[in-house]
Amino acid sequence: MTYPYKMVRNPYPSNPTPAIIDTLVLGGNKHKEARSAVLSCIEELDSKVKHNPSTKEFRLITIIQDVGSGKTHLAFHIKGLQQVLSKTIISYTDLALVFPRSMQNIYGAILRGFSDEYLTEFRRRLIYHLKDRAERNRESSKKIFRYRFLDSITGKKLEDKVQEILHNKALIADVATLQKVLDGEFSHAEIAIMKLVIDGSFTVDTNQVNTLDEILGYLSALAALNLKFFKKLTLLEIDEFDSEKESMGFVKAIINAHLPSTGLLLILTPSSYEQIRTVNTSVFDRLEKANYKIDLAGSNTLEEIVDIVLEYIRYHDEGKNFGPEDEKDLNSKIKAIYDEFPDFRNVRSMINILYHATEDAAARKSPVIDEEALEETLKKIYPGLRIKGSIMSVPVSDFIKIQKGCADVKTIESDLRAAVRNLVTHAKNIGTVSSLEDAQDNADIDVIYSDAYGSKVAVALLLNKDGTRNYERISSSLRSSTLVDKVVILTDYTATQRGISGASVAAKKDGETLVNIDRSKIVDLLYFSSIYKTNRIRGDDLERALALAKSIKLC
Amino acid sequence: MLADAQLMNKIYSAGQTGLKKADLRKEFPQAEIDSILEKLTNEGKIFIDKKGTSYYCWLKESYMQYLLNTDPRFRFTHDAICSLERSVSKNSDRLAAALETISLRIPDTNNQAMDEGLDASQADFTPERIAIGFGLFKEIFNELVANFSSSIGWVEIGKIRFALCEKYDLTAEKFYEYLGQLLERYPDKYELSSGGSEGLTVRGLLHGYVRTI
Fold first, then answer.
1. What is the ipTM of this complex?
2. pLDDT tens across A456-469, in order?
3. In a designed cystine with A357, which of A33, A119, A373, B46 is the match (CB 3.0 to 4.6 A)?
4. Cα distance from B146 to chain A (closest Cα, Å)?
5. Any idea which architecture B111-212 has in CATH?
6. Which of B152, B155, B208, B147 is nearest to A64 (CA)?
7. How near does any CA of chain B get to the CA of A439, in Å?
């Protein structure tokens, strides 16, 4: 299947929360600034540690923003960055998956947060380090690799033993033996970690630890080993950090312990941050003093969401088929959804809509993500959704098209004038008003009709300051006219904006009715006009059109 | 029988030149034409005036245009009236706009006193008891967000609501009505976050935190 803009796959993720594969793409200025802040922290810590490896350098980074704003996406993206991978060993922990929240379980989750590739490579490096050590001292090799007399007479070499251990066919010596052999080179905790890693039980036996002190010892040891064997920092990413007692105690201990060459990145919501402030001042104080407090303020603004959404396509647009015109077009569609549906002013929601719309467009072989795709998506995944304030029940696809056309004031003015004439004609056809007159000889009047009481009513449309008409001129011209009894002026900007009196809905003065037609009424009028001209008025549309006419004082 | 409409359509077709009464008589030889013309004149629907040596008929609008084009004194008077009307209208508009601005700043003490079943003169005029309009609400709201915000800028909406309603005697319903309007009008100036004990529901989630961007 070919996707819009000739893409070979749907660029948008479908998971409600991001998966690693989805996070290669990072759009949005705020998110990019946040990435830069994390990179800068890593750079700074790295330079400190390189300069003095024995120093206990620790950094705390917090990312605080609402759900669905892209915090986890950012954490995953950082985890996959080559710039970061070349300097750090990363563990990602989602505390939402840790239950019950005992310290052993949190510790186990942190260990399981390291990648399998890292653990395999760590194990290999440790075994070869021990082999080097053993080769320098024949006696120790026997102890570490359990190399026995029988092995020597059967011609088995030390490398064979190494291979057996690498392929899990043999075990190295116990911790006590390793401690004796490695004498002073590694701490007890480091040796315990080495043993667990080599035995492949690194992430399994976490319930064996009994105290928080022990856990901190192991995490420190792990960070030290990462620095020794990889020359890299350790970065612990903890997502969904909240005010749960065990989590707060655990994190406070990590911060207090100053784990060497380690960065702790905490991801939480403003709500959790506030709760922590209330229930644990001590932890809150530590969070307040974070080395980097990453602010994703404005991550749900239109500009940010548009950039994020477009970045997915730019990233997957291998054939460079997504041109500036396509970008502009998609931008206006996203804006229409963003403006009209406050519920979708959120990165996660918008990505979800775009995922489904892309699938729909691909199924219909549409070369672009079109209005129909978006309408079908909204209908399917958000049934019952209505355009806010619409009397005509404008379908989303028509709404997006109309919104797009609203940018040109000159076009919209002539279309709206035609729409007003069409609506009055419709009212006349169904007998609500009578004796319609063409007012083409008066440039300030759009239509004249006689209402149910026989009064002649002139209707004039007055658009904002960029329009071609002027309120004073219309008002003066129509008031001095002896031809009509009443005047209805439809305007799209409020009285205050015009610098004249009060109410924004409908103001009456001396035979003149001033009606404010807001954006939803403009869309309703334009939609009515389009279905009227193309004879697409069906069923309830007749009633709705009449209600629309009444709502703007046209009958 | 000759209809009024027939006659008026004929006069209308002559526009601002007008239709000679004699020509009208020729076209409509019926006896009642004079009485119909008189009736229409009395009703103010048509105007009959002398042009040169003959009498002509006009509809209201056309007659006015005729006078504007041919009678300088009439045109002068008409322009003067229009100018006066514009001036009065402009000043009354300015006055109304000024009143609207003032009304945003001045407490609605009379209404408040009436709500409380008191005479306006007996009302408590201390600033703590004033009702506020949207403009003032926005100002105070921004001030409270700035005052209450933590280092990361977020504030519990409930905290602001409590402070605002306590000081200004604003109901919770009105507070959330104004807050809804504020967010709708300035979506790029404010940000909501989920959680908290009270707030606005977005995507089915209670959003009880707010910050300015």
1. 0.71
2. 888 888 876 555 56
3. A373
4. 15
5. Orthogonal Bundle (1.10)
6. B152
7. 13
